Amino acid sequence: MVIGSTSNQGHNYDLSFKILLIGDSGVGKSSILVSFISNSVEDLAPTIGVDFKIKLLTVGGKQLKLTVWDTAGQERFRTLTSSYYRGAQGIILVYDVTRRETFTNLSDIWAKEVDLYSTNQDCVKMLVGNKVDRDSERAVSREEGIALAKELGSLFLECSAKTRENVVQCFEELALKIMEVPSLLEEGSNLGKRNILKQKQEQEHQAPPAGDCCS
Questions:
Q1: Do residues 92 and 128 touch, judged by C-beta distance below 8 A?
Q2: In Å, what is the CA distance from 208 to each residue of 10, 204, 205, 211, 215?
Q3: pTM listed for this prediction
Q4: pLDDT digits (tens, 9 = 90+) for 115-135
Q5: Exposed, middle or buried, 112 (CB in 10 Å: 0-12/13-18/19+)?
Q6: Of all helices (H) and strands (E), which one includes residue 200?
Q7: Which residues make beta-bridge pairs with 90?
Q8: Cα angle at 78 between 72 and 82, to 5 degrees?
């Protein structure tokens, strides 16, 4: 099942990027997404299949449209999600800093999936440790997170979907890095141009033809 919702969808934008959130069930992928999109924090039921949301934001002087796909972490939905890796310019691998197995599974399962399914060789990856608001229950150190990110060749941040600490930064830093990669920038630019052109055509269609009255 795919559910989509948008935020400020009708505006023009310079660049369009597809971002994926992946990781075990319960690490807070949906909460990070909701926190980013709506500035609210809430406990959410596990995602069924795939959900996506759209957010416009300005980064590096450019108006960006981010389409963020939130994938189900459960094993039974795994086959559903493989096709959603296609065309992604950015992938956020999320783990829960209080549950070590979710961290271990990033290298054992999720990084392998990225290698297997990602169609963009230059795709930018970011490792995100969620739930830092529960620091007293921490099972994975920040240093371990940094080390794994280095091993996977990805960016690294810790955040809290609950307090919104570093949530927006995750997406901003990822977008900035994507914009530094010429092939990804070109893809995003082409999508942005196509959207602006399409909107212009739609406006022309809607405009009443001149001099048509009383003929």
A1: yes
A2: 21, 8, 8, 9, 14
A3: 0.80
A4: 988 888 899 999 999 999 999
A5: exposed
A6: helix 182-206
A7: 19, 124
A8: 100
